[in-house]
Amino acid sequence: MAVRTEEMLLNVGPQHPSTHGVFRLVVKVDGERITEAIPVVGYLHRGTEKLAEDLTYTQIIPYTDRLDYLSSMTNNYALVQAVETLMDLEIPERAEYLRVLAMELNRVASHLVWWGTNLLDLGAISPFLFAFRDREFIVNMLNELSGARLTFNYMRVGGVKWDAPEGWIKKVEEFVPYMREKLKDYHTLVTGNEIFLARVKNLAIYDDKEAIAYGMTGPVLRGSNVKFDVRKNQPYSIYDRFEFDIPVGETGDVYDRYMVRMNEMEQSLRIIEQAVAQFPEEGEIIAKVPKVIRPPEGEVYTRMESSKGELGVHLVSKKKDKPYRLKLRRPSFVNLQLLPKLLVGRTMADIPAVLGAIDIVLGEVDA
Amino acid sequence: MSEETKASSPKQPLLDQYVKLITEKVGETAIKEAYINEVNSHMPSFIIDKELWHDVALLIRDNENMQFDYLMNLSGVDYESYMEAAYFFYSYTRDEYLAIKVQTERDGGSVPTVMDVWPTADWHEREAYDLLGIGFTGREISRILLPDDWVGYPLRKDYKPYDEEV
Fold first, then answer.
1. Distance from A42 to chain B by nearest Cα, in Å?
2. What ipTM does this complex have?
3. Judging by beta carbons within 10 Å of its beta carbon (0-12, 13-18, 19+), is residue A289 exposed, middle or buried?
4. Structure confidence at residue A3 (pLDDT)
5. Of B39, B86, B147, the CB nearest to A314
6. What is the pTM of this model?
7. Helix (H) or strand (E) holding B32
8. Which of B72, B118, B144 sits opposite A41 (nearest CB)?
9. Which of A213, B61, B98, B128 is most buried, with most CB under 10 Å away?
10. Which CATH number fits domain B12-107: 3.30.460.80, 1.10.10.60, 3.10.50.40, 3.90.1510.10?
């Protein structure tokens, strides 16, 4: 006797552990197969862009912390980068190195959370504990630097707020070989695992053309074999001084996106290692910036590589102390668009794997 | 912007080339203004007539001298007397940047959709519609971040929060 199935509408979320935030996915399933998936976002919309229009530039920085709260350092930078471009500011060396160190440490921390939680969704519990154990070292270091564990509010227009405390650089230096060892353990623990491979290989494949057409950026773009990284292709800050590779995938499946992020952590460690070696003994940590920041009239669109992808800021200034318009181009928001297409034809059990490989943070999707 | 600074921009020949292409292939009226945004790494920028925007969109994506295959960002901006949709492009093949502005009326104004040209425009357009009330013709559109029954468009400069008790 043939099995009779009928279509069913199912809400995944907004409260669901595998969405890691308030994200709703309305799926139409025929048996176990997904026939349609509609993402519903906006549950965490706080109107950051509107709020920013009533805030001075320095006051906006803590709001950027709360976009992608796993990667606040890069968000800080995205904002100050736009303002500095408009003002044509020269940033002191030492501040640039502190920024790069903070951003790359944060990138590793962000990828660690992704690694832990993504595998947790796939049913592996121990990676989560290892990831958070090692992330704790980074969080502690960034805490010593900025005074906060998650919402750092560290960067300022023209430089950074605090200098590195005594012995901090040494701690960062010692962390690099430690983390390298741990990454090897991670690979032993997970990467070769047969169950893991069965769940992620050849899953949710898209090619380079599709990725570009859908505006995918970051690891989800590089997973489809596009060798592009803003740090390399349009270097900002002092990224042109470091040697690092751009890891790419071949087939563009979930496994490739996994490997890209794993390799990116190693590249970040390479950058940190070089930045520590080149770190200037002394110097200013912030440029001479007027007390009230009034960028000249004009507009810029600047972009940078956050842990999720291209974080862009479109800033329109009318020579006031507050922005006329601040638009945040959030990578998580844009990357999520391809999800429905990837899910159709797959089973319910594939949802956490596919969604986890895009690596969204809802604070950033909804802004 | 004085003529002198314009001439000194390294992107000026590129801008002239784009102007020629758009005027030839789409029409003389397509470009309302062409300039170089010097502060933003000399980005070639255009203000395009909204009636011809879709034709221009196809041209800048497909023409071999343009090939802007990636729409980086779409922002809506309320300039109080008019609305503007600002598009920022990057070409992976040519490693070049481009900005396009399309302006429309404040009340009930709309611009043609480019969702069929760059699929990524879908959510960007929905966001601009949701927060600024810019319409996009040639597609179905609904709010994305705010609830469907929200009153008003928060990013407009004259926005007043709706309070049903008042």
1. 4
2. 0.91
3. middle
4. 74
5. B86
6. 0.92
7. strand B31-37
8. B144
9. B128
10. 3.30.460.80
